[in-house]
Amino acid sequence: MAVVPFRVSGAAADQSLEQRLFQIGPYTLFIKQNPKGSGAYHNQQLDDMISVELEGRSKAPLNNVGLVVWQSAFVLADYLIARPPFRTWRDVSVIELGSGTGVVGISLAMAGARVTLTDLPHITPFSAHNLSLNADKHSLDAQVMPYTWGEPSGSLPEAPDVIVGADVVYEQEHYAALVSSLHMLAAPHTVVYLSYRLRGRGEKEFESMLAAKGFTGTHISEDQMHEEYREGAYKILRASKL
Q1: DSSP secondary-structure letter at 148?
Q2: Looking at the domain assignment, is residue 1 inside a domain?
Q3: Whether 115 contacts 109, CB under 8 Å
Q4: Are the CB atoms for 115 and 136 separated by under 8 Å?
Q5: I need a surface site. Which of 19, 94, 113, 185 has the fewest CB within 10 A?
Q6: Shortest CA distance to 216 belongs to which of 188, 240, 182?
Q7: Is residue 51 one of the residues assigned to a domain?
Q8: Phi, psi (5° rounding) for residue 24?
Q9: Cβ contacts of residue 23 below 8 Å, gap of 6+?
Q10: Domain range for residue 98?
């Protein structure tokens, strides 16, 4: 297991970290997050906060949203742990885009996948710290690497079996870069899973951009999602190259 050192600057270095346990199927994750550093506070619903900030971009930057756990991460991790696309996660290679606190990637690593968690350089130390906390109790085949959407894949693993991303579809200005990365990273056999909350931020446009790059996609039926998230606000998109 490769983990980058936990040296964090800026908002991520704020010492007012909140520690939480997350139960994903049979796995218990120990996750630290930084609501204050992200711009989210305890008296706000996190998903509502990001919607408000998106409508008023001048209020606060969204550079640090990866410092907290969004509900879409739980939705995606819960679904994937229960329904591995290749019957098992053992030895399945996974790249996570926008890993943030690492809930999805760490869950899949606990299930036996070989996972590479990626995010912006100022977020990856936070992802790595959470990975190390859980690796203390589990033998995980996982690593954390900085990666900016739209850039060459560099040393990222080639032709992963699965690419995942939770709540990465919320800023239209980044859609083209995200689609470009998915196109570069995905092989014909790769399955892509993206979860997001519907916020009216051009989600259909994003799916159209994926289709224009040669992807076909379907939405996972809500009855396969956790019972608390079947009201229509959350979606899981499953996509692959034609």
Answers
A1: -
A2: no
A3: yes
A4: no
A5: 19
A6: 240
A7: yes
A8: -115, 100
A9: 29
A10: 15-241
Hey, how many other C-beta atoms are within 10 angstroms of the C-beta on 155?
9
Q: Does residue 9 fall inside a structural domain?
A: no
The terminus-to-terminus CA distance of the chain in angstroms comes to 33
To the question of pTM greater than 0.90 for the whole model, the response is no
146: which 2 tokens?
């900085």
Single-letter code of the amino acid located at 142: A
Separation of CA 219 from chain center = 17
* Tens-binned pLDDT, residue by residue, of the chain (242 aa): 333 333 334 444 444 568 889 999 999 999 988 766 555 443 344 455 444 444 444 344 455 565 678 889 999 999 999 999 999 999 999 999 999 999 999 999 999 999 999 999 989 998 999 999 999 788 999 999 999 999 999 999 999 999 999 999 988 899 999 999 999 999 999 999 999 998 887 899 999 999 999 999 999 999 999 999 999 999 999 999 98
Strand partners, 30: 21
> What sign results for the dihedral spanned by CA atoms 218, 224, 226, 229?
positive
Tokens 């892509």 found at = 192
Q: Where are the alpha helices (DSSP H) in the chain?
A: 35-38, 46-55, 71-82, 103-110, 124-135, 175-185, 203-212
By C-alpha distance, which of 228, 190, 206 is closest to 75?
228
CATH number at residue 99: 3.40.50.150
User: Into how many domains does the chain fold?
Assistant: 1
